[in-house]
Amino acid sequence: MNDSMDDAGCCLLSVAWNVAPLTEGRPDSRRGDIRRTVVAVCQTAGHGARAWAARHGTGTEAEYRPFLQLADVAYEIATLLLLVEDFLVPDIEREHRRWAEIEELSSRMTELADWTSAFLLSGFPLRL
What we know:
mainly alpha; 4 helices; 128 residues
């Protein structure tokens, strides 16, 4: 059970560590950009959450929950990225659906990353 700011930080760092490397395509592709963003966001928020926990303790659910949500969204993006680049039978419609979901989740990740960053910088509870 993840029930502390330190746990949330560890979850984020785990997601960053486990993002699969780009297996095909150009490194400057949209897939590569999203992968790098997921890793950077998770590393930054993960280290920030762990540092916050070292200074302030466990934290309340309202404080650490957005960090866990960020880890969850980032994990989902990383999983979908695997599905758009690896398939047995090409299906353009399926790929378009997955990309649409990746883009939607990327927007949510940005929103959560902005919130967690503001929380860590402010030192005050923010409402999400």
